[in-house]
Amino acid sequence: MKEVRSWSATLVSMPGKSGRVIACRACSAELCGTDASWKEHAVLRESPLREAAGATYRSAGDEVLLRRFYCGSCGAALDSEIALPGEPFLLDRLAE
Amino acid sequence: MDPMTFSIIRHRLFRIVDEAVITLKHVSGSAITNEGHDLMVSLYGADGSLLMGGVGFLHHLTSAAEACKAVIRKFGDRIGEGDVYLLNDPYTAALHTSDIYLVAPIHYDGKLVAWSACFVHVYDIGAMNPGGFSPQSIDIFTEGFSSPGIKIVDKGEMVQDVVDTILNMVRSPEMVMLDLRSMIACNNVARERMQSLIAKYGPETVNEAGAELIRQSEELLRARLLELPDGSWQSRQYLDVQGETATVRLTMTKKGDRLIFDFTGSSPQSRHSINCTYWAALGGLFAPLFPLLCYDITWNEGVIRLIEMIAPEGSVVNCTRPAPVSVATVGAIQSVNNAACATIGKMLAASDKYREQATAVWHANHFAIFKFGRNQKGGQSIGILTETFAGAGGASAFADGVDIGGEVPNPISRMANVETVEASFPIRYLFRKRMADSGGPGRWRGGTGGELAIVPHKAPDGGLHYVISGKGDRHPMSDGLAGGLPGGPNAYLWAKSGEAAAAGDDGRLPGGAQAVSWGVFPLMGEDALYVRWNGGGGYGDPLDRDPENVAKDVVGALVSADAARDIYGVVLSEQGVVDTAATDALRGSMKAERMAGEAA
Ligand SMILES: [Zn+2]
Questions:
Q1: Is B333 among the domain residues?
Q2: What's the pTM value of the predicted model, to 2 decimals?
Q3: What is the ipTM metric for this complex?
Q4: Is residue A92 part of a domain?
Q5: Which residues fall within 8 angstroms of residue A37, CB to CB, at 6 or more apart?
Q6: Best A68, A80, A91 residue to mutate vs chain B (most B CBs within 10 Å)
């Protein structure tokens, strides 16, 4: 297995203390092991989409949430998703 | 086989499809066909399998293959040279009743050697609502004429009693007849060109080239899949109809040389006509797959062999008869397509080799708005607002999406000129332009969508009515990628005659406005209809966008000053010049604020 390989456009996988881990592509900070759900280890900011700036988002439904996942080490945006309240995170994983 | 001959035959097959498309456009009289390019032509093998996928709406490539196979099963030995069959039943193969397939066998020396198939969205199909999209329908029985396969041309002769029966069930039969004639002409051109190709190279050689082409596509896609990482990626799409939300959920798994699209967990079928049937869902996922994974591979049966779909029966993506499906193409099918675009984008972005081929979701929310009524010439007109095909490009890893830049599932989609529409309908455009803040923010911005407003003009009856099947203005649907944000959602407003405007109403519209999205509404007297369509998804972190690009967007009225500051972290002077120090400071504090948050 290559030392560092792509996990997504914003994440990589690499060797950690106990097995391979998912890390921020920008700053190499470790998030979690490759078998875990990385979004649970990132910083989540969840707010109504209509409160995000811009004329067009204001017409979104009250209950429509914008979830943004950030690296807790460098603040890089790692992913975003649209969700209704209570939706599980979209899970993307590589088979390693 | 000799590579030169193979290459010549391959290119001839491409050109046959191109010429057939031109024929279709030139003979049809419908704006949806010749302006919007809501059409498709492809060639199929003797057994109905896809041989050469054409352009137009790519959802149809696999569905029309199933239509050929259904006709083969039904008619068998009775299929004769010069026959043409009509099929538009969604529970057999079609997407919805108004997208009619005409499939025609191609014979050589008396032997069936291939099929050509095409579709147009016919002028009308006799559903409850004019134009084919029928939001008021409650089942397939109220969605107009529907056939699982019927012969309309017998050995070169029109089966007039059958055609008359169909025309007796639709509005504007003369226009529907023109649509049928355009498809017959298209199939005639495809057949004649195929026969001359076979006459030149011989049936064995052409057959061998076709088999080789399919083998080649399979091998090329297999090699590509083996280069991409194994894994699974998820996406979901919300469809809102009158406050009821249906969800399309997708887990796409790639393992070795196989790609599996699993829609388990999607909502049960809806009582509204946004559902789609099995063949429609399959077409919906192939529509982005062909251009995104097979941009340099011929679209045929070889590609299809490596793909699997799981769509639970009775769900919004595999509904059971008699569920209504007339809005499917802008409903569940488009959501399947968006979901597949999102997961394929994420898979490509996970590969160092293919990251530059990844794209955020493009124009994800069609709005089917059909105007109908008496026109300024005294005749009856039915026609779609072709701006639904204008689209918006998704951003990629190296570029912004193209503003009003089309859509992934139809490489040739476009909108009509304002003047063309005003010439055939008693309406006037107040404006039609790119929409600020509609492109999804990101390091690379999604292409903008647009906005328009129309009013009645010189209408003999004081105006028109319109059928609107907007599948929701509550949810953004063009997802961002790699931390980019989605494009802004659609909006539809009816500015009512005589209604006083309230504070905050759009001053460009005559009077107060209310949201509309589903059903039949008037455009009479002083009414106006305002439509805003979504932009494409953004790619990457908006805080990484070059501030100069943000400044340019603000000057061009594509991004508001609010969004420049609050989303992109760019501070501009009153003259619109980037304040570099203030921008660095703002971006720094926004990043610090992100880091201050707790892990999820
Ligand atoms: Zn980081």
A1: no
A2: 0.97
A3: 0.98
A4: no
A5: A89, A91, A93
A6: A80
